[in-house]
Amino acid sequence: MAATADHSTTGANAPAYYVSTPIYYVNDRPHLGHAYTTVAGDVLTRWHRQRGEKVWYLTGTDEHGQKIMRTAEANGVSPQEWCDKLVEEEWKPLWEHLEIANDDFIRTTQQRHTDRVQEFVQDLYDKGEIYKGGYSGPYCVGCEEYKLPGDLLDGATEGEKLCAVHKKPVEWLEEENYFFRLSAYGPKLLEFYAANPDFIQPASARNEVLRFVEQDLKDLSISRSTFNWGVPLPWDEKHVLYVWVDALQNYITAAGYGSDPERFAELWPASVHLVGKDILRFHAVIWPAMLMAAGLPLPKRVVANGWLMVGGEKMSKSNLTGIAPTDLTSHFGVDAYRYYFLRAIPFGTDGSFSWEDFSARYTSELANDFGNLASRAAAMVGKYFGGVLPASASDGEAEQALKDGLAKAVEAADRKIGEELDFAGGLAAIFEFVKQVNGYITEQEPWKVAKTAFGDGGSDEGRARLATILYTAAESLRATAVLLNPVMPSTAEKLWASLGAEAGLGALSAQTIATVADWGRLPVGATVTKGEILFPRLEEKPAA
Ligand code: ME8
To answer: Which of 4, 73, 176, 285 is the most buried (most CB within 10 A)?
Structure first.
């Protein structure tokens, strides 16, 4: 999955590492599935920030179309009122709660978006890329998509057809509307995929798209005239733009397309569009074709994540299987939540959430391996050296093995998280190092060495050895705090504070991945304090 580029320069117009999430429909509250993609993007962008790169992270909401309009109607309010309420009361607060550090939040009802969308489609119309025609076919309002016969399942009654994603009956729509000449782009798309083998990831997603485009692409119906909740076509205001065509453009309108050419040059093309696998075709087929038609560069990568499943089905709002993230964060805490899903499910594959698995990982990986290590090391510096970090006297083989282990973990984590979006693999590498530090302490037995350091029979040699062990442990934790900062920012900050690192090294956010394996950065004499427990024992599971 490698696609390396130099984003380290900071001058005007230097390319930024630009990552986007899908913009979510605001027909309901966010659930674990939405948070999964958004946390992944947050970790990816925080990782690149930690490299010292210029980064831009975009998320937002998709507010037009029939689905939103019907939800608003059912709730007795206007679509705009509904969207405003959901965005302000549900979506934005959740991202804040989960410590999502997005640089912008785009809403498709904002004028900065709708004006640019009208210009974009007018341009395509003027170029002859859009024409008027008629269409009839099965439509799923849940997907906001016309379906092909192969996309449908049989329903309970004779002739009834269901959407394979939503398991709900499709509607038969017949409309006169405008079409985008998607069919003309098949060969160009195939050429582009061949020249850019990393464009669609993972490989399974790429193969699915190739198979789809190798069949004949049909022109895309891009307008609707049976309802009006959408962006009006500038040349025919009886029609509103199909919600997906409006939505996809958020990636350029938020980046300054048509309004701020300098910023747009810096941000576009995007480095990574993160999408769920259900919306891959829109991002890997329709969106690139629209950009080609407009003469704009294509995004560098489209990376599809798998689904979080409940009882063997995709967790979703419409199937009422959506679990609110706060149901979990109130029990496990925000940082453990951010960690768990990325660690437990290989990115790109489907995975099931289980309370038991989360509890087990929390206890063994976070509380025992990591949290206890941090508190034991700090407690010993407190007990034996009055909380003042001693200098390492002479490093031997055991210390060298740890330094090597750290270098290996940094290389693996940087490649896996920063380039390959293999979050589980990157976290496994970091936690392998944490395990190694635990093993080091168990073997070195500082509590025994302490007996040879102080009191009757205490020696300089004993004190020197103890100092070496504790410096080594603290220095390992210094590196761990930096590596885990993109994933668990609050925990990493607590650890940074407990190591007294800020006085000598500055803010945790100012540390870079490039120097994290440089041994000996934590200054001797740092004030080490025990601080609060990083991962407290879990309460009993609340009754369902
Ligand atoms: O599709 N597991 O919005 P949406 C993992 N507005 N990820 C999941 C998930 C699950 N069970 N459920 C949802 C739309 N997601 C359009 C997008 S983009 C121009 C327009 C995530 O509210 C996943 O990333 O249905 C999926 O692509 C996205 O939420 C869909 O959110």
So the answer is: 285
Gap from CA of 391 to ligand 1 centroid (Å): 51
- Confidence category of residue 68, pLDDT binned at 50, 70, 90: very high
Atom of ligand 1 nearest to the CA of 250: 19
Q: Which residues contact 125 (CB under 8 A, 6 or more apart)?
A: 178, 233, 235
Please report the sign of the dihedral spanned by the C-alpha atoms of residue 129, residue 131, residue 135, residue 138: positive
3 state SS of 130: strand
pLDDT at 8 (0 to 100): 46
Q: Does domain 360-515 have CATH number 1.10.260.40?
A: no
Structure tokens at 379: 């407690």
Question: In the chain, pLDDT over 70 holds for what percent of residues?
Answer: 96
Query: Which tokens in the block code for residue 177?
Result: 């509307």
Secondary element (H or E) of residue 476: helix 460-484
- Beta partners for residue 60, in sequence order: 106
* This prediction's pTM: 0.94
Structure tokens, 280: 């891959």
Ligand 1 pocket by C-beta < 6 Å: which residues?
A: 22-25, 33-34, 36-37, 62, 247-248, 250, 275-276, 278-279, 305, 307-308, 314-316
Architecture of domain 19-129+185-212+244-352: 3-Layer(aba) Sandwich (3.40)
